[in-house]
Design goal:
Number of strands: 2
Helix content: 55-70%
Order of helices and strands: HHHHEEHHHHHHHHHHHHHHH
Largest sheet: 2 strands, antiparallel
Number of helices: 19
Strand content: under 5%
Distance between the termini: 53 Å
Radius of gyration: 25 Å
Number of domains: 1
Shape: globular
Length: 464
């Protein structure tokens, strides 16, 4: 005969109010935990964050004064272009000559034409608020797709929606988008759209569209070049030699089309002026604006020897990751290269043999390497990797420690929020970058999970 549960009120047992409170708090804790970490609630949480960001962005625009930095110069440069000037070396504004590719000029020309006047900042700020929200949703999509299993029954590493919280906490990010109207966020919007397309399909068409969007991002600002080493690796892995060459030609062709009004076979000076202005890799940076190298003397900062050393370091670390981390399959990079060069038209790896997080992890890591070895970082460059940091920290950059991850993120945000930069803020930024890269290289949990997934797939194939 089943025993009946004892009712404390009927049995005479003392009733404890704390018991009911503990049960309620426990249930609330589990609910919050599920809302922050369970995949089924990912878009519920992301949607709430997006709405919150929309409200916060509106309040910022209405209550915080716009910061006059580059917008007047953009409008002056656009005015010269719309006035018929096609010599890139002669297009300039109050902050100096035009140093951005052609798509930047076209986008800000649209602002110039459709705003009530070039000085109408408020409508432009609301357009940038739209850019901000769209960028957030694209990044959220990348995090969501990264947690998708690459094949049925494969090991999955969920990137929880809690990782999106830091994206709503950055004062610097809100300032760059909403108060300064720089072109960096526009370039990154195109880039994140490219990543989403590449991750969504992993077909030839998806890669072609993704590469086209990548080239559009490059057409806004050349910082997108920092992602190129990662893109080349991915094109080789997913498309093979022919696909890699097709992608390179596609990027070059789109750049040529965008620059067509400024290129001339009859007048080589115009072509040279465009290339050397829009893609000037030798441009010297001002020491007073550096965020990452304040702890070195100005003479050292400006020296050619330091520039060469940083370039060598950048190249070396890219090679280390390319050979030892970016081919998480049995046999590693050597096996991938051998297969790829034996069959030019065939991809060395099947999309299902690589984890869903592989595409953003390779691209984001390549970018972080480039930023770590950059000759100088200015404050608006924060937008180049801000949305990627939680992803990289969770992928191994925090060495598997949530506390270290929070500390690294806070250290980086503090460094970017410190104005002007100091010896300590610059050192903290560089050290944080190095710690993240070292964690990604040596102790990435996602990399280990990825290898298990690939080995499991290989074993299943052999059994079949």
């Amino acid at each position: 005969m089943a025993t009946r549960s004892r009712n404390p009120f009927r049995s005479g047992l003392p009733y404890s109010p704390s018991h009911g409170t503990n049960v309620m708090l426990g249930g609330l804790f589990n609910l919050v935990k599920s809302f922050l970490f369970d995949r089924q609630y990912f878009w519920h949480f992301a949607g709430l964050l997006a709405v919150g960001e929309l409200v916060l962005g509106t309040l910022i625009i209405q209550n915080v004064p716009y910061t006059k930095i580059d917008w007047p110069a953009y409008m002056q440069q656009v005015g010269m272009f719309l006035g018929g000037e096609r010599d890139y070396s002669r297009i300039e504004g109050e902050t100096g000559p035009l140093v951005y590719p052609a798509l930047h000029l076209y986008i800000y020309s649209a602002f110039h034409r459709f705003l009530p006047s070039p000085d109408s900042i408020r409508p432009a700020q609301y357009v940038f608020l739209i850019f901000y929200i769209v960028t957030f949703l694209l990044v959220a999509t990348i995090y969501y797709l990264a947690g998708r299993p690459s094949k049925p029954n494969a090991i999955r590493r969920h990137y929880p929606q809690a990782l999106l919280i830091p994206l709503a906490l950055s004062k610097r990010a809100h300032s760059i988008f909403l108060l300064r109207l720089f072109n960096d966020p526009i370039a990154m919007l195109f880039f994140y759209a490219a990543v989403v397309v590449m991750m969504s399909g992993k077909t030839k068409s998806a890669w072609r569209i993704g590469v086209a969007l990548f080239s559009l991002a490059l057409g806004v600002k050349m910082n997108i070049l920092l992602f190129v080493p990662g893109l080349l690796v991915l094109l080789f892995q997913y498309r093979g030699i022919y696909g890699l060459l097709e992608g390179a030609v596609s990027v070059a062709a789109i750049q040529a089309l965008l620059a067509a009004p400024f290129l001339s076979l009859a007048n080589p000076h115009l072509t040279k002026a465009y290339i050397t202005s829009a893609f000037d890799l030798s441009r010297q940076f001002l020491y007073e604006w550096t965020v990452n190298w304040r702890f070195v003397a100005e003479k050292t900062f400006l020296s050619r020897e330091r520039a060469v050393l940083l370039l060598a370091g950048h190249f070396s670390i890219i090679l280390l990751f390319a050979f030892f981390k970016w081919s998480p399959v049995p046999g590693g990079t050597i096996a991938v290269l051998q297969y790829g060069f034996n069959k030019f038209a065939v991809a060395p790896l099947k999309a299902s043999s690589l984890p869903s997080s592989h595409i953003p992890l390779v691209l984001f890591t390549a970018n972080l390497i480039g930023m770590t070895f950059a000759r100088s970082l200015h404050y608006q460059f924060h937008s180049w990797y801000f949305h990627q940091l939680p992803f990289l920290l969770y992928s191994g950059g925090a060495w598997g420690s949530p506390i270290l991850g929070i500390a690294l993120w806070a250290s980086i945000e503090w460094a970017w929020a410190t104005f002007p930069s100091t010896v300590y803020s610059s050192a903290a930024l560089l050290i944080s970058h190095i710690v993240i890269l070292t964690g990604l290289f040596f102790s990435s949990p996602s990399a280990q999970a990825n290898k298990v997934e690939v080995k499991k797939a290989t074993i299943e194939k052999k059994v079949q």
